[in-house]
Amino acid sequence: MKTIFSVLVFLAVFSACSNSGNKDRLPGNLINNPASMDKPPIGDYPVISFDSTQFNFGKIIEGDVATHSFNFRNTGTANLIITDVRASCGCTSPFWPKEIIKPGDSNKIIVKYNSDGREGKFNKGITVYCNAYPNSAILKIQGEVISN
Q1: What are the strands of the beta sheet with 92-95, ordered from one edge?
Q2: Residue 81, domain member (yes or no)
Q3: What domain range is 129 assigned to?
Q4: Residue 11: inside a domain, yes or no?
Q5: By C-alpha distance, which of 118, 52, 108 is closest to 85?
Q6: What is the pLDDT of residues 125-137, one digit of tens each?
């Protein structure tokens, strides 16, 4: 009885350690994040290049949701992966591509600003985290919310 129990425990542990259920995970060698480097890494690495990192909405009416797309290109020589995008407050919502951006390919990060109850000038930051050099970029939106 102890032998059967030991075999079952061994099989349970062995099957729990297999990678068969991790098909959606990216291999670690794809990410290769050069975050701690003081200078560009040697060899192939991604580079995220934005057309512009700032946008001014001008005057928007309170209650409107203002939207802007920040266009970028992978100007590096390796696959680009955006791991996270975070806004400085809950009134700003970023949307970004979850797929790999190959060298030379373009895509966009869409930022929505909800002006409901936020009369006055605003200046918000959106931080883009990725496996490029450098490993983060800051996008900025600004404008003024006026009452209708």
Answers
A1: 48-50, 65-74, 106-114, 92-95
A2: yes
A3: 38-146
A4: no
A5: 108
A6: 999 999 998 899 9
